[in-house]
Design brief:
CATH topology: Porin
Helix content: under 10%
CATH architecture: Beta Barrel
Number of strands: 27
Distance between the termini: 35 Å
CATH superfamily: Capsule assembly protein Wzi
Mean pLDDT: 90
Oligomer: single chain
Largest sheet: 18 strands, antiparallel, barrel
CATH class: Mainly Beta
Number of domains: 1
Number of helices: 5
Radius of gyration: 23 Å
Structural class: mainly beta
Amino acid sequence: MSLLKSLLFMALAIPAAAQEKPQEFHYRVEATATASTGTYAPLWLTANRFGMESEKPNSGYLRAGIEWNKKLNRGWRIDAGLDLAGGVKQTSDFWIQQAYADFSWKMLTLSIGSKERMGFPLEKNSELTSGWMAEGPNMRPIPQIRGEIKNYLAIPGTRNWLAFKGHLAYGMFTDGNWQEDFTAANQLFVKKVMYHSKSLMFRLGNKEKLPLEFEFGLYMATQFGGDQYKKLANGESEQTIDMPDGLKAYWHALFPTAGGEDTPEGEQVNVEGNMLGSWNFALNYYFGDWKVRATLDHYFEDHSQMFWEYGRWKDGQLGIELYLPKNKWVSAVLWEGISTKDASGPILYDGFWGSFSDLQMSGGDDYYNHYIYQAWQHYGQGIGNPLLAGPIYNEDGEIRFKSNRMKAQHVGLSGNPTEEWKWRIMASYARHWGSYAHPLDKMRKQFSSMAEVTYMPQWTKGWSLTATLGVDRGNYLGNSTGGMITLRKTGGLGR
């Protein structure tokens, strides 16, 4: 409780100091409370909130942050922030949500630290989408060093008809202690795992000349390094795998290649680490004040389904976004269809890459799971699409996605009737089959929905109040009805 009291004091003290600081400083203070029935809170009260919300039916948090933005000469800019949070029934009682420094020169940025980054290569409507397949805003930020071109940069000589953006990042997962506490006896967990991601996207088209644009590119990520442990019945842990973490491991993450003799046999015949990614495509059409956007987010793991090795792609997320001209009620409509059911099809037997004598199992991909790193997750929440519920929902203390074969439909609508009011509605219907190795006892269904209204009174600048209602029905995560209230204050410090 002393940490929460200190955080509350910080939250109250920041606005009080507003007249004593330079204008480049901005603050944010936020308090949220959630109450619901059922075993878990409704999915959309938890998902895609950068790990700030708990899956537990009743929870809350207090958050206070400050950031500094400074423009310098010759196109330079510095942005830095510190964001602290404390809560009840959360994965941590107190944590640093953000602590970062960004150094930018024109379009190029070097970002260092833990930050809520929305710089995923394929842009989607972040208020309405169900999420991204490979990496999205569903989990607590991963601290990293990241070089990036955030927005499309026109390639010289193409007259703005061809542009690109991309990033390269290395970081470290910080949930090793949480994994050890969460894991049950005889289960596996990992510590000191490293993170790597990279992306390159191109945009073809010039909407000033032709109202049509095509975007395409690749995102790849890897878990590497670290140590695997097994939880013993007496509560102690023993190390089972020690993965290399030298410079060569960083190189193998950048250019996926087979591991050496200091890695398990499975890494020597495939690629070192847990490599995954997505191909990303978008088609944008502009018609006056209207905009229609179609997207394809195709997920893959290892070599399977990265190319057309097993025929046409069957897994991924197909989306359509419609943006209407300014009106009083509806501003955006979204539909998404998601499938991870194929997972490269049934298990096949073939030779290892570059081998003619040994055998390997191809196909039957175990999406988001891995035999060394257990799962593509951070603090129990999936890093990819939240409709595939993460390990935090496992009551048996296993760090694994119980169902990674799923088909789902998702819709979302939003509006901004006045400067003081905005709203959004989301609904999803998913069918789950478990995994190839561990199928569910039967096909299970889950409906998840959310309705949210935000009031931003003009007579008290910077304040907002958000009320959210969530309703879940189904036999996978169960039935739940709940509400969430968020009170937020933002503003600048100084004159």
